[in-house]
UniProtKB/TrEMBL annotation:
Protein name: Cryptochrome-1
Protein origin, superkingdom: Eukaryota
Keyword tags: Chromophore
Names of required cofactors: (6R)-5,10-methylene-5,6,7,8-tetrahydrofolate
GO cellular component entries: cytoplasm; nucleus
Annotated GO MF terms: DNA binding; FAD binding
Pfam families: DNA_photolyase
Encoding gene per record: cry1
């Protein structure tokens, strides 16, 4: 991360809050690296409607065990934010990104090797993914008339 922060001139990093233990540990390490590199980290909660840590804190460090208790706790919290504006083609007209000839070289997804990982002996992907694979699978399903009729 430190090399990429510098190489890509990163000033802010936005991440999704993860309430799982692995995610908390991972995110703490990333936030530490970002802080050391002078990168501001913005964390948002959107996997859940409510801040789970805040609910547990309000309940004396324990998760609520009943729905009634959960409702009592959230009634003491700030109201939820209203949904943001729906993304429409009109809204997107305001968004522009300058693209230069070396855009992919500068901002493309780096390979594992470029990130410094040793890939010798790694098995190939068990489940191929991506849009091309998804479209191939969709076409295969659409060829099955019985499947389409359902």
């Amino acid at each position: 991360f430190p090399r990429l922060f510098k190489e890509w001139n990163i000033a802010k990093l936005s991440i999704e809050y993860d309430s799982e233990p692995f995610g908390k540990e991972r995110d703490a390490a990333i936030k530490k690296l970002a802080s050391e590199a002078g990168v501001e980290v913005i964390v948002r909660i959107s996997h859940t409607l409510y801040d789970l840590d805040k609910i547990i804190e309000l309940n004396g460090g324990q998760p609520p065990l009943t729905y009634k208790r959960f409702q009592t706790l959230i009634s003491r919290m700030e109201p939820l934010e209203m949904p943001v504006e729906t993304i429409t083609p009109e809204v997107m007209k305001k968004c522009t990104t300058p693209v230069s000839d070396d855009h992919d070289e500068k901002y493309g997804v780096p390979s594992l090797e470029e990130l410094g990982f040793d890939t010798d002996g790694l098995p190939s992907a068990v489940w191929p993914g991506g849009e091309t694979e998804a479209l191939t699978r969709l076409e295969r399903h659409l060829e099955r008339k019985a499947w389409v009729a359902n």
